[in-house]
Design goal:
The complex is a heterodimer. By secondary structure, chain A is an alpha+beta fold. Helix content of chain A is about 55%, strand content about 20%. In chain A, the strands form 2 sheets. A 3-stranded antiparallel beta sheet of chain A has the order 2-5-4. In chain A, strands 1-3 form a two-stranded parallel ribbon. In chain B, about 55% of the residues lie in helices and about 15% in strands. Chain B contains 28 helices and 24 strands. Chain B starts with a helix and ends with a helix. About 0% of the residues of chain B have low confidence. The chains are: A alpha+beta, B alpha+beta.
Chain lengths: ~110, ~900
C-alpha cells in the first residue's frame, strides 16, 4: 500500500454500491467489504455514509431490501437490484466514463 | 415502476418512523458485530476489535441522523417541532391568538355554511338512478308569454311515443294539491300535500320503495284500484312507522285508497313538502279530447336512452313538435317545446343567490385573512430581535420562514376547526330560516365535500395571511437589527408599504361587499313599497277544501260555502268576510283563453287570469270598485252569467269605451256553445302572482256560477286578525267535523312569504356585509395604530427638530386619508364591474344604482377615515421628550 485509503468520492458511492450488487444480493457490511476488496484497498467506504446511501437508492426504486438469515444463522438486511436498478447501473457507468474521460482531456492539456 | 416503488419506500419510512429507526439500529449492530469479528480474526483482543469497529463506522448517531435526513424524517420531525413551538408562542400571547382564531372562525364558518348549501343544491347529483340522463321537458309559447312552462298531457304522451331518444317519460302535477286524510289512526282529519303523478313516475326516476312497491304505469291507465304511495315522513309522523302499513286502506278526500308502498327517506320530489303520491287516472279516450291538448298543467320528465346526447334528443323532439303543430293547429300553433337537464332546471333561480352569497363570504374570509395577517405581522415585527439573534447564531433563514409559516398554519387550523363548528351550526340556521323550498332541508349538512372545502380554504388562508409575516421574519440582516441597540429605529419602509396595502385592501373589500348588500337592500325596500293593490292589514285567511265524495254536487258545495260565509260574518270581531278561489301573491295562477263579443278572434292568443269569488271580496280586501257593481247574492247559478274585470284589462281592451255591459267568453274562438258573460264591474288591479310582477289582466266570476270545491276564507277585523283563528276553526268544525283547515295565515304573513326569498338573501348579505365592515374597520384601526406607534419615535425626532405638531398631524392624517381615498376608488371601480352579476336579483334598481354607489362609498369612506384618523392624531401628538426617553 502506497497511500492511506481515501474516502470514496462523494457521488460515486451510489455507483459503486449498484455495481457491487450486480454480483449478488448483499448486506451492508458485505457491500463495504467488497468495495474495499475490489479497489484493492484503495477505497475505504465511510460506513457512516453507506446506510443513508442505501436508503437513498431504495427510495429511487433502484434497490430493494429484505431481512434474511445469513449462512451463520444470523438476521441481516439484504439489498438487491431491482429492474430499474439494473438499467441504472448501465446508465450511471456510461455517464461516469464520460465524466472521467472529460476530466482526462482537461488534465492532458499542457 | 421504480419511481412508484421508491415512493412506497419513502411513505412507509415516514409512516413508520419508529420501526424504520429500529430497523436501522439492528442493521448497524449487525454491521459492527461482523466488523468486530473481522478484527478479532486479524488478531486484536475482543475489546480492541470492537473499539476499532466503532471507530471505523464513524459515529452511530451521525449515521442515524443522515439516514433520517435521506428519508425526510427530519423534515417531519421539525414540522412537529414547529407546530409545538407555534402553539407555545400562541399561548404566550393569548389575546392575539384568540382574536385571530375568532376572526378566522367567523370567516371560515360563514364559508362552511354557505358552501354546504351550494353543495347540497348545485354540486350534489340528484338522488335518483343515473340522474344525468333525466331531462325536464317544457312547452313555450311567445303569444301566451309562456316560458319553460308546464305541458299539455296529450302533447307529452305523443313525445313519449314518438321521440326515440326517450327511454320513458313521466308527468307530475306542476303544483301540489292539498287533500284531507281521514282514517289515519284514530286521529283528527289531516291535511296532507299530494302530488298526482303518472304511474311510471318512480320507475322513470329510478327510485324503489323502502316498503311495499312503487306505483305502476297501468295504474294511470284505467286501473280500477285506487292506490297511494306515502312519503317517509308522513309514514313516520302519522303512522308511527308501522311496517304493516302496506295493504291498509286510508281515506283521501273521503274515498278509499290502498297504501301500496312507502318512498325512501331521501326521496322528496317534486319538493320537500310532498306527503303522498297518487296516480293520475286517465283513460285512452282522454287522449283524443281537445282539452287534453289545450290545458297545460303537468310537468314532464324524460329519461334519455343511454348514450343519447341532449342535442340529438332535442332535435328529435323538435321534429315531433313541428308535426304536432301542423296536426293540431287549434291548440298547438306557435307551441314550442324544449328540454333542460333536470338538475339544472331544478336548481334554476336558486343558483344565482347562492353564488352571490358564496362570493360574499369569500370576500369576508379575505378581510378576515387580512386582519389576521396584520396581527401576525405586528407580532413578527415585535420579535424582530429574536429572529435576528437566531440568524446570528446560525439558524437558516428558510428555517425561520418555515417556523413563522407553521405558526400561521397552526392558527388557521385552530380557526378552521372553530369555523367548522360555527359553520355546522350555521347550516342549521340556514335550513331553519330559508324560505320554503329554496334548499333541500334534509340534505343541507356538512358532508365530505364540505370538509374538503373547509380544509382547502383553511390551508389557503393560513398561507395567505402567513406569507408576509413569514418572509418578514427571515428578511432583515441581523447586524442591522441588533445594531439598533434595543431601540426600534425609524420604521422600515417595507413594513409601512405592507400596512398601507392592507388598509387599502380591507376597505376596498368591505366596500365591495357593502355595495352588493346595499343594492339588494334597496331592491328589497322597493319591493316592500309596492302597493299590492289590496290592504293586507287586519285580514286572516284560511283555505278549506271540500271532499268530493260527500260534496258531490255543485249545490252542496255552494250551499256549504254560502252558510260558512254567512256564519263567518256573524263571528264576533269580524267586520267583513269573503271567499276567493286563490289568494293573491301565492305564486299560482289559473289562466284561460278569452274572447270579447263583437270583435274578431284575438290572434295572439293572450291569456287572462281568472278567479272565482263570493260577493264582498273587493270590500274585504279593500280593492277599490272603480265602476259598476260587485257580485251580489242575486247572482245565482240560474241567473245570467256575470263577471268583474280589473282595470288593467279595462285599459288594454276597452280604451275609450265603457266596459260595463260588454260580453266575454272563456274561449279562444267562440262558437255556438260559448257561454257569454256580461261585465258588471271594474275593480283596481292586485298584484296576483308576486310583488315583483306587474298586475296582469284578470277576470272574476261569482263562485255561485262557477263552483269550486276549494276556497279560501278571508276575514277582516279591526283588532288583531290572528285572534279570529280559534273561532273560525270552531265554526268549521261545527259545520263539518271531518273538514280540516289547510292553512291559516294573516294576509300580512302571506305577503311576507311572497318576499321570503328576497328577504332571506338580503338579510344574509347584510349580515355578511356588516361583519365584513366591522372586521375591516377593526383591521384598519389596528394597522394605523400600529404604524402610528412605531412611527412615534420618528415623530418625536421631527418635533424635537422643530416641526410643529399640527403639521405632523396633517402629514399622518393626510396619508391615512389618501389610503382611504384610494381604497374607495378601487372598491367602487371593482363594484361597478362586478355588481352586474346581481342584475337578475334586483327589482327596480339598476346594478349601478347611483344612490347605492354614492351613499355606500361615502359612508364607508367616512367611517374608515375616522378609524384611521384617531390613531394618526395620536402620532401627531407625540411628546418628543417622552418618546425619545421611552425606549
Amino acid at each position: 500500500m502506497t497511500a492511506t485509503p481515501s474516502d470514496v468520492l462523494r457521488g460515486t458511492l451510489d455507483l459503486l454500491i449498484l455495481k457491487t450488487l450486480t454480483l449478488e444480493p448483499m448486506h451492508g457490511w458485505g457491500i463495504s467489504q467488497r468495495i474495499q476488496q475490489f479497489s484493492r484497498g484503495a477505497f475505504d467506504v465511510n460506513q457512516g455514509s453507506l446506510y443513508p446511501a442505501l436508503q437513498r437508492l431504495e427510495q429511487k426504486g433502484w434497490i430493494e431490501s429484505a431481512w434474511r438469515t445469513t449462512e451463520n444463522n444470523r438476521r441481516a438486511k439484504y439489498y438487491s437490484l431491482t429492474g430499474a436498478g439494473k438499467r441504472a447501473v448501465g446508465q450511471e457507468t456510461a455517464s461516469w466514463r464520460r465524466y472521467v474521460s472529460s476530466v482526462e482531456l482537461i488534465l492532458e492539456v499542457k | 415502476m421504480g419511481a412508484i416503488r421508491g415512493a412506497m419506500v419513502r411513505l412507509r419510512a415516514l409512516l413508520h418512523r419508529r420501526a424504520t429507526d429500529h430497523d436501522l439500529d439492528d442493521e448497524i449492530r449487525f454491521h459492527i458485530e461482523l466488523e468486530t469479528e473481522k478484527n478479532v480474526r486479524l488478531g486484536f483482543t475482543p475489546e480492541e476489535a470492537r473499539r476499532r469497529a466503532l471507530v471505523s463506522f464513524g459515529g452511530v448517531q451521525r449515521t442515524r441522523e443522515a439516514h433520517r435526513d435521506v428519508r425526510g424524517a427530519r423534515w417531519v420531525g421539525e414540522a412537529f417541532g414547529d407546530a409545538r413551538y407555534a402553539l407555545r408562542t400562541l399561548r404566550k400571547t393569548p389575546a392575539l391568538a384568540v382574536a385571530a382564531i375568532l376572526t378566522l372562525a367567523l370567516g371560515i364558518g360563514a364559508n362552511t355554511a354557505i358552501f354546504s348549501a351550494v353543495n347540497a343544491v348545485i354540486l350534489r347529483p340528484l338522488p335518483f338512478t343515473d340522474p344525468g340522463r333525466l331531462v325536464m321537458l317544457w312547452e313555450e309559447n311567445p303569444d301566451k308569454g309562456w316560458h319553460e312552462g308546464v305541458v299539455a298531457p296529450a302533447n307529452a304522451l305523443d313525445w313519449r311515443e314518438q321521440v326515440h331518444a326517450f327511454e320513458d317519460l313521466t308527468m307530475y302535477n306542476g303544483s301540489n294539491g292539498r287533500v284531507t286524510l281521514t282514517g289515519v289512526g284514530a286521529g283528527e282529519p289531516v291535511v296532507a300535500v299530494d302530488t298526482r303523478v303518472t304511474g311510471n313516475f318512480f320507475s322513470v326516476l329510478g327510485v324503489r320503495a323502502q316498503l311495499g312497491r312503487v306505483l305502476r304505469d297501468e295504474e294511470t291507465w284505467g286501473g280500477d284500484q285506487r292506490v297511494v304511495v306515502l312519503s317517509d315522513h308522513l309514514w313516520r309522523e302519522r303512522f308511527g312507522a308501522d311496517s304493516g302499513i302496506v295493504g291498509r286502506t286510508i281515506q283521501v278526500e273521503g274515498a278509499d285508497f290502498q297504501v301500496v308502498g312507502v318512498a325512501p327517506p331521501s326521496f322528496a320530489f317534486p319538493d320537500e313538502s310532498v306527503d303522498l303520491w297518487l296516480p293520475t287516472r286517465w283513460s285512452m279516450e282522454d287522449r283524443n279530447q281537445v282539452w287534453f291538448r289545450r290545458a297545460h298543467w303537468p310537468r314532464a320528465v324524460a329519461r334519455l336512452r343511454p348514450g343519447v346526447s341532449l342535442d340529438r334528443a332535442n332535435a328529435e323532439l323538435q321534429t315531433v313538435v313541428r308535426r304536432l303543430q301542423q296536426q293540431y293547429p287549434e291548440t298547438n300553433t306557435r307551441m314550442g317545446a324544449g328540454m333542460t337537464p333536470l338538475h339544472e332546471f331544478l336548481v334554476g333561480d336558486t343558483r344565482l343567490p347562492l353564488l352571490v352569497l358564496l362570493s360574499a363570504v369569500s370576500l369576508l374570509l379575505l378581510i378576515a385573512c387580512a386582519n389576521v395577517g396584520n396581527l401576525l405581522l405586528v407580532q413578527a415585527a415585535g420579535r424582530e430581535r429574536e429572529a435576528a439573534l437566531r440568524l446570528a447564531l446560525g439558524a437558516g433563514r428558510g428555517r425561520l420562514v418555515r417556523q413563522a409559516l407553521a405558526e400561521s398554519l397552526v392558527l388557521s387550523a385552530l380557526g378552521g376547526a372553530a369555523g367548522l363548528a360555527l359553520g355546522w351550526w350555521g347550516t342549521r340556521i340556514l335550513a331553519a330560516l330559508q324560505p320554503a323550498g329554496m334548499l333541500p332541508v334534509r340534505d343541507v349538512s356538512v358532508s365530505w365535500n364540505v370538509l374538503g372545502y373547509v380544509l382547502l380554504i383553511t390551508t389557503a388562508s393560513g398561507l395567505l395571511f402567513g406569507i408576509a409575516p413569514a418572509l418578514w421574519s427571515g428578511r432583515r440582516a441581523p447586524v442591522e437589527v441588533l445594531n439598533e441597540g434595543g431601540r426600534s429605529g425609524s420604521e422600515g419602509r417595507r413594513m409601512r408599504r405592507w400596512g398601507d396595502t392592507l388598509v387599502v385592501a380591507e376597505v376596498a373589500l368591505a366596500l365591495l361587499l357593502t355595495v352588493g348588500a346595499g343594492l339588494l337592500a334597496r331592491s328589497f325596500a322597493e319591493l316592500r313599497n309596492v302597493d299590492p293593490g289590496f290592504d293586507a292589514s287586519g285580514t286572516l285567511t284560511a283555505s278549506i277544501s271540500l271532499p268530493g265524495i260527500r260534496y258531490d254536487t255543485e249545490e252542496k258545495m255552494t250551499s256549504f260555502f254560502d252558510r260558512l260565509l254567512e256564519r263567518a260574518r256573524a263571528l264576533p270581531g269580524v267586520r267583513d268576510a269573503a271567499l276567493v278561489s286563490q289568494l293573491p301573491l301565492t305564486g299560482t295562477e289559473w289562466t284561460s283563453d278569452f274572447a270579447i263579443a263583437g270583435r274578431g278572434a284575438d290572434g295572439s292568443g293572450t291569456e287572462v287570469l281568472h278567479r272565482e269569488l263570493a260577493p264582498g271580496y273587493f270590500q274585504t280586501m279593500h280593492v277599490p270598485l272603480l265602476s259598476g257593481r260587485d257580485f251580489t247574492t242575486d247572482d245565482r247559478a240560474d241567473t245570467p252569467p256575470v263577471i268583474v274585470i280589473n282595470d288593467v284589462l279595462a285599459k288594454r281592451f276597452f280604451r275609450g269605451q265603457d266596459p260595463i255591459g260588454q260580453k266575454l267568453a272563456f274561449d279562444k274562438v267562440p262558437d255556438s256553445s260559448s257561454v257569454w258573460r256580461t261585465i258588471v264591474g271594474v275593480v283596481g288591479s292586485e298584484h296576483q302572482v308576486e310583488m315583483a310582477a306587474e298586475p296582469r289582466i284578470e277576470i272574476f266570476s261569482p263562485v255561485t256560477q262557477d263552483p269550486r270545491s276549494a276556497m279560501t276564507v278571508v276575514l277582516r277585523t279591526d283588532s288583531d286578525p290572528a285572534s279570529l283563528g280559534p273561532s273560525l276553526r270552531r265554526l268549521v268544525k261545527e259545520m263539518d267535523p271531518t273538514l280540516a283547515i289547510g292553512s291559516m295565515k294573516t294576509m300580512i304573513a302571506v305577503r311576507a312569504e311572497s318576499l321570503a326569498r328576497q328577504r332571506f338573501l338580503t338579510t344574509l348579505l347584510t349580515v355578511f356585509a356588516a361583519i365584513g365592515v366591522a372586521l375591516a374597520l377593526i383591521g384598519v384601526y389596528g394597522v394605523m395604530a400600529q404604524l402610528a406607534r412605531r412611527r412615534s419615535r420618528e415623530m418625536g425626532i421631527r418635533i424635537a427638530l422643530g416641526a410643529s405638531a399640527p403639521r405632523i398631524e396633517r402629514m399622518v392624517v393626510g396619508h391615512a386619508l389618501r389610503l382611504v381615498a384610494i381604497a374607495v376608488v378601487v372598491g367602487t371601480g371593482v363594484a361597478l364591474v362586478t355588481t352586474r352579476a346581481l342584475g337578475a336579483l334586483l327589482y327596480h334598481v339598476a346594478p349601478v344604482d347611483p344612490i347605492t354607489f354614492v351613499v355606500v362609498p361615502l359612508l364607508l369612506g367616512l367611517t374608515a377615515a375616522v378609524a384611521t384618523w384617531v390613531p394618526a392624531r395620536q402620532a401627531g401628538r407625540s411628546d418628543p421628550a417622552v418618546v425619545l426617553r421611552g425606549e
